What does this fold into?
Amino acid sequence: MLAGAFVVIEVLVVTLFVLFVLLPLARRSADDLAGLMVLSAQTWAELPPLTRPAFEEELLASHALALRPASPGAGQDEWHPFYFYVLEEALVRRTGVDQHLISENANGSTWYWCNVPTGNGLLGVGLAKSRIDSQPFTALLIGLLGGLLFIVALAYGLARRITRPLARLEAASALIGQGATPMLLPETGPREVAALSQRFNAMALQVQDLLTARTTLLAGVSHDLRTPLARMRLALEIMKTDPAATLIARMERDIEHMNQLIANVLDLARGLEHEVPEPVELRDFLNEISADFSANGSEIAVDGPPGLAAIARQALRRAIGNLLQNAQRYAAPAPVDLVCRLDQTGWRIGILDRGPGIDPARLEAMFQPFHRGDPSRSPATGGSGLGLAIVRELARANGWTVTLSSRPGGGLQAWIAATILDSSSNGRTS
It folds into this structure.
């Protein structure tokens, strides 16, 4: 496509150059030559016979023109280079009669002859082909054709430079469609193509992360469902001979655990859609959450100034709830601090506990699905391993940041933060 456009443009340029530059130059040159030929013939006819030989020698030496008696074959037409057609037109204008140049070879040279009328009749006038071999018309035309070939080659090279990365992109896209993981594309070439490669590489990495997360998710679900199912099967076998309330209670706990696990997995798989923020009195909002979770046994102390903030109420409630559950699970019976910070740049909510804490090297891994602080993966000592993963997804969906770090003095602190997007929000944050 691009190469074709270059060719069309070059052909148009060549055509315009020929029509408006070369052709006028050729006509002017031919008209001057035709005038010289007619004038030479008329001058020769008016000279005394004794001086004519000297005139012929001078004409041949200075202008590569020759004179002879008129040739009867001069009225016949034949093919010859373009310039001679222009010269014929000029001779017709000068003489008023039809002119058709004929070619003859003499002594290894090519001559073109025509009959020019004089006062004494017709006189043959010839010019050597070598006289016009150096005319600029042909040289310029050859130069333009050479330029055309160069433009075609350049256009082909540019088209290849553009189409090659696009072909790689097409092949990589096909691999993704087949479920394979392609190699990252080189981010080179034209600016638009390089930007496209960058976006594709980012998408490929995201797809790879999603595939890895899916694999981890399926493996974790398989493990966590298999254990309670095995206990329930064993309990059912025992109940055939000895139905006991303790077995029923354990089965109910296993069913509840499985139900919660499935609900968490479904939430994580849905991607946790973005929620429209609404203005909320932040301290009152945290007091409501504290009242709900204080019944679980650990005291929750709320600290922070009053103030309005634009928040996604349900998403933030769930994120804080998951973090509070983790804090209560590992820090009980020590109290948990629920603090908020609100200013013109945004808001921050922290969940701070005095539990055993986590190795700093493992803090980022805690956000991975099914990664637990308790390596035993027992529901008795820990949750499903999806709580922090859901918090991270909620943060991504709503434009927040969530971080874990060691608390000074011992324990763990988790912070959820959002910044004001622009000055038009009037102190409201998202």
User: Anything to note?
Assistant: Residues 191-239 form the longest helix (49 residues).
